[in-house]
Amino acid sequence: MGGVQPRRHRGGGVRPAGLPPGLRRRRWLAGRLNRRLDPYPARPRLRRKRRSDGRGQGPRPSETGLYPRAAGRSGPSRLQRRRGRTRCDRRHYRSQRQPRTPGLTAQRIFITGGAGFIGSRLCKALRATGATVVAFDNLHPQVHGDGAAARLQEGLVIGDVRDRAALQTALEQARPDIVVHLAAETGTGQSADEPSRYCDVNVVGAANLIEAMRALETPPRRVVLAATRAVYGEGAYADTAGVLTAPPPRTVEAMDRGVFDLIGEDGRPLTPCPTPETLPPRPGSVYGSSKLMQEYLLQQSPAPWDHVILRLQNVYGPGQSLRNPYTGVLSIFCQQVMAGRTLNIFEDGEIYRDFIFVDDVVSAFVAACATDAAGGQIINIGDGRATSIREAAELILKELKSDRGLTISGDFRAGDVRYAVADTRKAHDLLGWSPQISFEQGVAALVAWARNEAEAL
Ligand SMILES: NC(=O)c1ccc[n+]([C@@H]2O[C@H](COP(=O)([O-])OP(=O)(O)OC[C@H]3O[C@@H](n4cnc5c(N)ncnc54)[C@H](O)[C@@H]3O)[C@@H](O)[C@H]2O)c1
Fold it and tell me: Which of 104, 113, 142, 181 could form a disulfide with 129 if both were Cys (CB 3.0 to 4.6 A apart)?
């Protein structure tokens, strides 16, 4: 570490180093005197020494996420060696910790999109903490089909986020302490065909919500946004020098030639990395752009509340609409296999995703509502593990005991992302959150639910 090292003294306390001896002693004595006068002395703060090469100022490069982990120094740091444990050990300890979700008991929580896949489970989880929950949802037919009534739940207000007056009335009645904004149009492919609808619901809807919250006599104290990894576009890659970069979307022309991997400006292959929150956004779809605009609206509108932005990776699990052809690749696979179809795997099958089980996402939202330190933060929520679409399809075929198999077709969709995996360290550190459900367990739960749904139809 380039910082000043503390020295322990027999008399206790820390004597600052790096100053001329006379001044050092005067400051040390003054500190001791102050401590004698002050019954609750602040702990001495160690300041990093400024260096001419700029190191030691602000966070270390590995903390900014601007450099891939592989490019950083390997092995434990001097501090870690002194403490006798490594970063891997620390990650292990963290994964043992439970999320900090202290009393939401007396809280009133308003959830837009609360009848949806994530929202309906989140409502239940929050009610279980003792919170009073109101869901606001228009029961979008593309998501809920004609059986929308089946989704009717306690505390549901049917309304559209595009209807500012309806939002205002619902908020005035709910008087929420916390608002969770989930309502959205969610189909990446569909967003290219219907940009005005996507902007209306996602952008204007979020702006309406902000204005309606501002007009409340007592505005909420926190707003939690369901954001998406789509804001990263292709996400983080390292070039041959090990520098992290956010490449532009792949071209149709390259994919036509069967070139699916990303190539750097120097013509050499780029290496995919887990994407940190600090990577500059570069959405490759109207959906991603409209969701990024939601983030900007929250960040840039002066407001009395603080906000938490959770960038979700690929969420899957029981309850994800089997009838919506635009979202949820695993639900779509289940539905296709149960209909006796052969799965068509795009590109060369080596498209990677970070699949995260819905109940883990729900516990991340609960932690985001309850953790003070999350205020003002953008946090990736994912498993942090890369699973190829081919592997996922094979697991679903196995769980459904289907012999229909799959085809790796080489087909592709413009705007599709090749490798999408999150760096989830911030979620571990800030929320004390880590996923609890393995991909195998999650797919088994999804398949069991999808089977039941199909039988019930
Ligand atoms: N599921 C994922 O993989 C994923 C990944 C990243 C981000 N997200 C975000 O999480 C949120 C919830 O996603 P989900 O998977 O539960 O989707 P979902 O479609 O199941 O839920 C969205 C809910 O919003 C409602 N809704 C849609 N338009 C509305 C409108 N105009 N007014 C009021 N309600 C409306 C729908 O009826 C639905 O109940 C979305 O904001 C989405 O962008 C989801």
Answer: 104
Ligand 1 is surrounded, with C-beta below 6 A, by: 112-113, 115-119, 137-140, 143-144, 160-162, 182-184, 186, 201, 205, 226, 228, 291, 312, 314-315, 321
Ligand 1 atom 21: the closest Cα is on which residue? 116
Kindly give the distance from the C-alpha atom of residue 422 to the centroid of ligand 1, in angstroms, as a whole number: 20
Sheet holding 222-228, edge to edge: 156-158, 132-137, 108-112, 178-181, 222-228, 306-312, 377-381
**Among 370, 390, 349, residue whose Cα is nearest residue 430:** 370
Pick 153 or 248 by higher pLDDT: 248
> In this prediction, what percent of the chain has a pLDDT beyond 90?
69
Based on its alpha-carbon atoms, the radius of gyration of the chain, rounded to whole angstroms, reads 25
What is the value of pTM for the model shown?
A: 0.80
C-alpha angle with apex 329: 367 to 335, nearest 5 degrees? 115
In a mutational test of the pocket of ligand 1, which residue from 110, 117, 122 has the highest number of ligand atoms less than 8 Å from its CB?
117
Mutate to test the pocket of ligand 1, among 118, 358, 362, 383 (most ligand atoms within 8 A of CB): 118
- Distance from chain centroid for Cα 296: 16
Per DSSP, 359 falls in state H
Query: Could you tell me where the DSSP H helices lie in 38-155?
Result: 61-64, 78-83, 87-96, 117-128, 141-144
Domains and CATH numbers, the chain: 108-456 (3.40.50.720)
CB atoms near residue 51 (< 10 Å): 11
Which secondary structure element, helix H or strand E, spans residue 398, and what is its range?
Answer: helix 389-399
